[in-house]
Every structure is written in structure tokens, then in C-alpha cells.
Amino acid sequence: MGKKLAKPKSQTPAAPSRVIITHVHPEIEGGRFPAKRVEGDIVAVTADIFTDGHDLISAVLLSRRQGESAWTESPMRGLVNDAWTGSFAVREQGIYEYTLQGWVDHFKSWQRNLAKKAEARQDVLTDLKIGAQLLEDGSRRAASEGAAAAAQKLNEWASLLRGSQSATASSGGGPAIDAAAATELALSGEVTALMAQYPDKRLAAVYDPVLQVVVDRARAGFSAWYEMFPRSWSSEPGKHGAFRDCEAHLPYIAAMGFDVLYLPPIHPIGHTYRKGKNNSPVAGPDDVGSPWAIGSEEGGHKALHPQLGRFEDLERLIARARDHGLEIALDIAYQCSPDHPYAKTHPEWFLHRPDGSIQYAENPPKKYQDIYPLNFESEHWQSLWEELKSVVLFWIGKGVRIFRVDNPHTKPFAFWEWLIREIKAEYPEVIFLAEAFTRPKVMQQLAKLGFSQSYTYFAWRNTTQELTEYFTELTRSEMAEYFRPNLWPNTPDILTEYLQSGGRPAFMARLVLAATLGANYGIYGPAFELCENKPLAPGMEEYLNAEKYEIRSWDLSRSDSLKELIARVNRARKENPALQSNSNLLFHKLDNDQLIAYSKMTADRSNVVLVVVNLDPRWAQSGWVNLPLEDLGLSPYIPFEIHDLLTGARYTWRGPRNYVRLDPNAIPAHLFRVGRPRSG
Amino acid sequence: MGKKLAKPKSQTPAAPSRVIITHVHPEIEGGRFPAKRVEGDIVAVTADIFTDGHDLISAVLLSRRQGESAWTESPMRGLVNDAWTGSFAVREQGIYEYTLQGWVDHFKSWQRNLAKKAEARQDVLTDLKIGAQLLEDGSRRAASEGAAAAAQKLNEWASLLRGSQSATASSGGGPAIDAAAATELALSGEVTALMAQYPDKRLAAVYDPVLQVVVDRARAGFSAWYEMFPRSWSSEPGKHGAFRDCEAHLPYIAAMGFDVLYLPPIHPIGHTYRKGKNNSPVAGPDDVGSPWAIGSEEGGHKALHPQLGRFEDLERLIARARDHGLEIALDIAYQCSPDHPYAKTHPEWFLHRPDGSIQYAENPPKKYQDIYPLNFESEHWQSLWEELKSVVLFWIGKGVRIFRVDNPHTKPFAFWEWLIREIKAEYPEVIFLAEAFTRPKVMQQLAKLGFSQSYTYFAWRNTTQELTEYFTELTRSEMAEYFRPNLWPNTPDILTEYLQSGGRPAFMARLVLAATLGANYGIYGPAFELCENKPLAPGMEEYLNAEKYEIRSWDLSRSDSLKELIARVNRARKENPALQSNSNLLFHKLDNDQLIAYSKMTADRSNVVLVVVNLDPRWAQSGWVNLPLEDLGLSPYIPFEIHDLLTGARYTWRGPRNYVRLDPNAIPAHLFRVGRPRSG
């Protein structure tokens, strides 16, 4: 039942509340930003709540969907050291609000004191009269809330307490009971429960500010992405692929168990200063250019590259993908080629050089003459913002609900905060992934202001120590409240040295790490499953013959493809709820630095997954894993079964120390389900 | 020169600032509470400041005294990882405000890009034209601020840049210079400095909220307190002492080096339910009662106990104390004896029992019938607050500026916040010490809301581990910003088990710990210097024959008195600035848990003090101290002299590990000044 917070009117202002509510969690920058959850989550809220002196207090958590006027109350429970905790469920997408209310509970304090006095066999007749008054006050509150039966009950009890007499005194007529019986009644569960329903909140404190939590659909918290260049998927090598070619390959991608299919920009590509193969500054006549050089005479951000197909083709791809359990994600890259229509129709959105030409992108001494950045400091910023919003709405209109945002850190934070809030107010199901590999504070700010998921430094965290430190920060610091990591072992721009030098074993290790350390992860394929690892030049992270600049043709049937392993990993993710969130990630001690071990489990510990990965792509490594059995719900005396979901092998372990050996030339990882395996 | 933050008017709203300012320190609960400093301090402020993209930013710290309209700007300096730092001086008592301003610095960015292009020998003629525009804009800003000379200079440079030609081109007439010379000019210190004076702040971000720091006088941060019961200081044993008797003992107290002389309540004492000796519930006819049972027919909180003297006696004591470098602190205990005038004149300020009598204090099953607590939830809370404020103002009128507040945690937090703010608005020099030994969050809240100093758990932190953990929290956590510890090894209520069992060596150890771990400390004397350590009963922390309930007579000339040691310790505190603040407290490793070692040093490391204490009051203990020489400004190769300020002994140490041995039967502590001793 909803409650409003209106205070009773009074002639003189009531005394300020004696209750302090502080250190509320989650609370990001004093409530400036919302926390993030997915639908169905339980939001646990903790706070320090206390009052002066020795009186007892009570507190409730108040929550509501944004826009509702009434609050729902959930009880809060005192822990140690003035910390309190409570929770509320977020069942639907959108924004929820929450705050806390606490008050000095005179009735509860009175009960405590009465119990102590009774125990010390002190005279309590005066106390019972005071209690009668408290019950009568409660009765009036019940009556004013229309609870006539409760009001009457409370009044009856009040009469009994008021009329009670000491056991030694002679009892007259009327409803008198002796003090011992009155004490017992006053401390009874029945009285306690009814008074708790009608507490005296006249001097209650309400936490200010009201805090928010953004509730996304489940996929924002758990997803497996597959990135592909549609133009490379033609069945005829060298020919420009189209949406229809993608359609044909949906079963291939779905069989690996992905649920998001992300396409780089699908718009017309500029020809002025078009980049050639291998990022050459000069393009040949047949060079297709980078999809991120958006816009030509054929259109801009709301147009399709003619060779990919028409809108009906895209819409059919979206529908067919859905049939395969795949959702299409598009790329939002707010930048223009010199041939973009905006350059002619809206020159005011760009910075101009003294000669009147539009300023191209540069990072001196490098020039990027194929790109015109938008000028967000333009006097015409408002029309620019509106236009950019209309781009997102346009693709929403085509059925797209997931956007991977290119280089968000090169556009103003205030713009993103506005854009995402505007879009999600109308379409709360939209997911924005921030592609930013930049300074930590910048990446955090993008996540705080609203991005649903974020790229991370995962690609460059290779050792046990690096991974442990980074994922402890991601899952144990305040970042866990607002930053949802999406882990990519590779991207079209990033081929790490580890993958270059480690080859297939390295790809396998990084796959398992990405898919199990993070509830959200993705790969750039087929480069990933085919272990593409030749760099443009030694020491560079760019690919040789990068798909960004040319059409590639992939032999998907190669026998060394990782597609089977990927399918097993994604199946393990789907079947084990422990892998579907980032909380409860625990790293375990091992006596070999080349191995990393960690577990994840559900809050009720019904599902426990243990992962061990050999980070050395060359040699077999072995060691002893130390498990905190109690934390994992295991007995040190009873053997437990572990089931490797990658190989199907089953082992029986016992006690905290157990031996593992992983050969990178087979599979460099264990992905164990711990405990008695369920069916399947 | 002060600056205002008014923004230029414009037809269309300017684009939102691209600069983010976040994670500002100090900032307590989002600016809800002020940080604390003392006059003369430098307030260092750090924040994360960044923008999107690759532009450079500039930032300033803005500060002012509360009430001033103009801000003073101090430059901020970028550190690593988007952290910035700046500082401002707080020269006077009162409240200062501060905030931050940051902006994208297009001129600085342009200079950086120009330098890179010039280094890469690219053509920069277009860039120089862009720079000319930036200089002209700067010139206009200078002109609008009335800086005609600067405006002209900037315009001249702009002309040079605009007219520059590539070195190969033939130079016509006019002021043309070649591009290399123009670049050199544009990057010169002269141009940089002048442009930095007239930055383009149109799109600057200003941090919201404005933050505050309360600046107290120096004594709030550095003080040595001596607590005494005036009635025990008569020269005639057993006779009720008076202010005049205290006067006679001022030289004794001053010789020990204290600067605050704190008197328990000096008001008339109630006789109803007066407590007898040793807290007996029944007082004999000669029992003097507890000074905290305030009020009788002779007056309440604004009256003097007749046997102590008259107001002129108090005022003379205050003046004489000042002559000895001692400031009198009074006790504020907002509670009443049943005989207090308020009980008759303002019954509405108390809670009443069903029989109409006023509710006495209780902590069931204990009753404190000699005390009536005030009811802060009364409808008449406003007149109560005003009256309580008038009590403080009354004693301020008598010349008192330091108040030790009894049991502040049993009165509402909102009341204290109001009271302290009201008093300090008029009398910023007033110091309030919170006597609260209660839950950590409650003690923190009292300090946050305004108490200048706070009692601590020091009395119960005895081991190396306990002391290290507690003082790390006090000096390294956010508490350092608002919680000024005042360390008391004993009080009239607290005789710890450590002092009871450890005797004189324990008193010496605790003295040195209190006086050197905390810039503020105090002792309850003469019980302390005479090592009074008999408990009321085994296992109790109360004194036998507690001075709270009876007149004691002390033999100040006893040969085992610690007064000489106390004088040496207080002299060391006065002569070593390192001991006058709590920052830079560093604990050092030792291979013997019975010993504790720590150092304090001034920010410039010109004064370094090293303390080693034997915590075992029974046996001599020895061990090796490990010093972080580099942190202390010492060389590992050059011997350094240490001078024990307690014994006068001098030693030469070398390297990080040095041997100490402390015998509790001599002096269980070293208080070393490190480095070449200065005179004296």
C-alpha cells in the first residue's frame, strides 16, 4: 500500500527530527547520478541511521517508480554500528526513486525499558500508564487512517494497561489486570505488530536527496556480442556483401550462442580523402573505405550504404536475426566525411578555417582529412543536439534498440547525458555501449551519466595481478553501481600483442576470461574464431589487411576455428546464472602466477562456477588452487564434484587445496560447475 | 584582485560547458558540512577535472570569506590521471567558501598543436592565422576589463601572426615576419603569460556546490588541557575550595606547560536525590554532590556555586590565568537537578509522568533521580533552544571562549548544529569540545556538525595494533578533515584498567602517547600527575573516592609526581611544530610488539620528531626501529643525530634500522628530535 510523506499540519513548527540518515549506498556523487540495475533485481540499500541518546529508532526504505506520487515502504533492519539495511524490487524498466525515513520509536523504547524494569522486579505501574498513553496515541493514528478495528483494539489494550494494579493491591471491579499480566500484554507480539503499523512519525527524518536507480532490461546486464562487417560476408570472395548475405550466416553466429550482432556503420562512405587498404592515405579506385567515414552524396547518418541493401533488407535482417535469438546493434559515430550532406546543409555545425573551409580532424602532426568533427561549441549547438537525437530515433524507428557508440569521449559529456535521458524516457529498453578506451575518469564519467555498458581496459590486462586488480576495482568499488563492463579480447582496431604472439591458445584463454569475468562480453569475428593475429607491423596493434579498409573473405569452415569452444562457453553462460552477473566475483589463491583462478556464484549459492585459466600460451602450467570452501558453501570434509563445462570431464575434489594442470595446446582453461551437477 | 563569476549576456544560451569537475577534496557529504582548519593554514584542494576529446583545459580555485561577493583566484595545476590541485590561505577566523572553475583552453591547445606541427616541419601559415584570431579575441577580453596596454600588445602580436609568410615567399612591406619567427613568438613565455591573464571563460564550468571551511583560532588545533575541580584546591584540607584557591595554584599548572584550564560545572548543585561519596544514592549532610547535578534555589546554569566565589572572583581568575598563559574552559551540561529554577519556571521543557511529576533520567533498571533531562521534542523547543543559547552567551559575556560540552550525544544533532553556528557567527573564536564516548557514527556526526574538538577512544586503545589502526583512521581517513581528536588518558569518569594495573610507568607511557599522537590532549589532574589509580571496585573504571562526589586534597609536592615529565613533554610540544598538528603522522615498523614507534614532521620536513614508547608497564623492552629515511628527509649513508627531549640524551643513528631499549621504571618513552638539534 502506497504512502505519502505529507506531514500533519500544526500551529507551531515541530521540533527538528532527532534522527540522522547518512552514508546511503548506493548513492553516486550525492545522488547526482543514478545507480544501475536490471529488471527483476533486488536493490539493497544501506545507510547509517541513528539518533541522540538511548532511544530506539525505526526506519523504512521508500521507493517508487518515477512519476508515481505514492511511496512503497519496505522495513529496514539494524545491523551493527548504526548501519541499517533494506531492499526493494525493481520489476520494470525505467527509473525508480528511493529514499529513507527514520524516526525515534518511543513505543519500542518504552517496551525495552518496561522489559528491563520488569526483569529487575521494579514497580512498573507508572510505566504502564505511560504505555497506555502511547497506545491511545497509536489508536488515534489508526483511526485517522481509517483502521477502526485496529484503533479499537489499541484502545482496549490501553484501558487494560491504564487500569492495571500491582499484584499485591486488592483488585476492584472493572477490567483491571495485574501489572505482570499487563506487562506481558504490552510486550506481546500482537501489541508490537499492531503498534508497528501505526508508528508516530511526526518527527521523522526523510533523507534528502531522493536517489535514483535506472532499471534496464536484462540484456543490459548479460549479453554476448558478435561484431561483423556485413560487406565481408558475401558468398563470393571479393564481392561486396549485403544484408542478405548476413542473413544467410545467422545460423552460424547463432550456433555459437551469441545474442547481440553488432554491425559497424552501415551508411554511405565518403570518397574525399578516402583511406585505402591498410590505412593508406591514398585509396585505389576499388577501395571501399572505412565505414566510420560516414556520408556521401548518397546520404548521411540516416541513409544506408547502397551496396548493403535497402531498408526493407535491414528490417528483414533484424527480424530473421530475432528468430535466431540475435538482436542487431548499430554503430553511432557522430562524425562526417567531407562528403556528408551536413557539410553543405549545416556548415554552422562545423569549425571553419580562416580560408572558409571546414576544419578536418587532426592530432598534430597527424591529419585526418577524411573526417570532419562536429563542433559542439557552435552557437547552433541546440539544433545540432536535436539532429543527433533524431538520428537515434530514426534507427529506433527501424527496430534497433542497441547502439554501440563510437568514441563518445570526443563529444561533450553534457550532450550524452541529455541524449541518453531523452531517448530512454521514451524507450527505456534502449542499450548504449560506450566505446571509449581512454582515461579512467573519462570512462567512469560516461558510465555515470548514462551509458548502459562500457568498453574496458580488459584487452590490456594479461597477468594474474593485472586481472585481479582491475576486476576487483570493477566489481568491488563504487564503479560496480554504475559501470557495466563489456569485455572485448579483440576489436577491428585492437589486436593485442598477447594475441599476436600467443596465437590460438591465447585466443582461447582470452575468450574464457572475457566470457566469465564479465557478464557482458564480445568478440570481433570471424577474426576472433579464426585466430587472425598478423599485425600491420611489429609493435603495432593494427591488423594487417584490416577489415576496416577492405573486404575480407573468411573460411568459416576451417578446422582450427574456435567456433565449437565459443559455443560451449556461451552455453555455459546461459546455463549458469552465476556467470550472468558481475557480483560475487572472487579470486582464489594459487601457487603458480601463470594460472588465475576465480569463482562466481549466485546470491543463494545454488550455482557456483569456478574458472582456472593458464595465461601462458606456450607451456603447460600446473598448481594448487586454494578455495575458500565456506564462502562457496562447501564442506571441508565432504568431497564435491566439479564438472568441466568445456570438456565434459568430471572430477571429485576434497578440501581447500586441489591440483590443476592446463596445457595451452589442448584447452588452456577449466570452466567448472561446482557441486552436484544438475541435469544437462 | 577579486573576480566575479557573472557570465556575459547572449542572445542564445551558450553551449553547456564541456568541462567536468568532480571528486573534490575536501568535501564532506557533498558540501553538507564544512572542513576545518586553523588561521594561517593553507587549504590544499584537489579535484578531477577533465573534458572530452584532446583539448587542453585550465582551472582555478576560487575562494573568499563568507559574505564577500568577489572571489580570489588561485591557479590549479594538473597532476596525473586528470587530478588537479590548488590551494588558498585562510588567514582569519570565520567561514571561507571555495569552489572550482575549469574551462577548455583553446589558446593553450592551439599552442600545443602549433608546436607539434612546427616540430614536424609542417606548414603552419593557416594555424598562425587561427592563432591571430585567438589573440584578437584575447585582446578584446583585455580591453573589456580595462587593460588597454595588454589589449594593444595582444593586437600587435595578432597582426604579426596574421601577416607572417613562409620563409621562402618574398616578403613585401609592412610588419611581416616569417612563419618560424611567428611560431617562436606565439609559443613565447610573454605571449603565454599575457593570454593566461585573459582566458576565454565563456564556456567555463563552475563546481556546484560552493564548499566551506571553518577557520578556527590556532588553539582549536593545538592545545594542552588541564582539568581540575576548584573545590579540591583549598589550602586547608577538607575545606571547600574557591576560585581564589585556584588562582594560587596557577603557577603550578602553568609550570607544567598547559594552556587550557578546564573547570567542571561551577554552578549551584542540587540537593534532591544528591549523590553521596562514591556515587552513593544517599548523601550525608556534608556531602557536596556532583557538580553535574546543576541547579538549586541559588540558581541554575547562569549562577555560580556560592562557595566557589562571585563573578568578580571568576573574572579575576580568568585574567590571572591569562597572565600565566592559561585560558579557562567551562563545562556546558544541559541537564538539571530537580531543584533547578527551570523545573518551576519552565516545566514545559521537561517530560512529565502520568502523576504530573517531571520525568527523571533513567537507563533501566538504573534511575538517576538527581537529574531531569530536557525534552527537546517539546512543543516549546524553540524557547528551550534560545534559552540554552543564552547560557553560552552569558559565559561568553564573562570572558569565557572555550566550552567542554558534557554528553552532547544525548541532545539532538540539529540543536548543536544550530547552536554552534549561531555562536560562532558572532564569536568565531569560541571552541567547543564534544565530550562523547559513544558510537563512532555519533561521534563523527557531532564533529561534522561543528564541534571544534572531540574526545576519542584513545583511553581504550592500548596495544600497538589498536593505536596504529585508530590513529591511521583519525589522521588518514576523511575524519582528518572535520574531527579534531583531543586525547585524554584519564578523566574524572575514566580510570582505565591499563592505568590501574600499570601504575606510574603506565601513566608516563599514556602521557607521552596522548601528547604526541594528538595535537590536542588533556589530563584530569592532580589525579594524573599523582598517578591516582585505585578503582571503586575491581573491574570498574570509576575511581575510589571519586572527586566527582567529594572534596579531595592532593599532595602536589609528592616526589613521585609526574609534573616534571609533563613539563618536559609540553615544552617539547611547544618547541616542535611537528607536534602541533595531526597530519604527517607515520607509524614505523618494529620487531617488538610491546614497543610502538611513530614520527611526525612539518610539511617542509624542517622539524621531525620520532617517538618510541614501551607499552609494557612491567618490563624493559627492546627492539629495532625501521625508519623510512627518505620520507623523513634523511640519508641512508650519513649518520644523523637524535636528541631525546625527555632525558636530554643525544644519540647518533645511521641507516634505517636502529636499536632502542626502554625501561618502564625509568622513562618508558623516547621523544626524539631528529636531525641536527637546534639551539635549546
Into which percentage range does the β-strand content of chain A fall?
Answer: 15-25%
Distance between the termini of chain A: 43 Å
- Low-pLDDT regions of chain A: none
Question: How many strand units of chain A?
Answer: 30
Shape of chain A: globular
Number of H/I helices of chain A:
14
Sheet with most strands: strand arrangement of chain A: 20-19-18-13-12-11-22-21
Largest sheet of chain A: 8 strands, parallel
Rg of chain A (CA only):
32 Å
**Proportion of helical residues of chain A:** 25-40%
Any chance you could write out the topology, listing elements then pairs?
2 copies of one chain form a homodimer.
Chain A: E1 19-25, E2 35-38, E3 41-51, E4 57-65, E5 72-75, E6 77-78, E7 83-90, E8 94-104, H1 106-119, H2 125-144, H3 148-163, H4 179-186, H5 189-197, E9 205-206, E10 211-216, E11 223-227, H6 243-255, E12 260-263, H7 311-323, E13 327-332, E14 335-336, H8 341-345, E15 361-363, E16 366-368, E17 372-373, H9 381-397, E18 402-406, H10 413-426, E19 431-435, H11 440-449, E20 453-454, H12 464-476, E21 486-487, H13 497-517, E22 520-524, H14 563-575, E23 586-590, E24 595-601, E25 608-614, E26 621-626, E27 640-644, E28 650-653, E29 657-662, E30 669-674
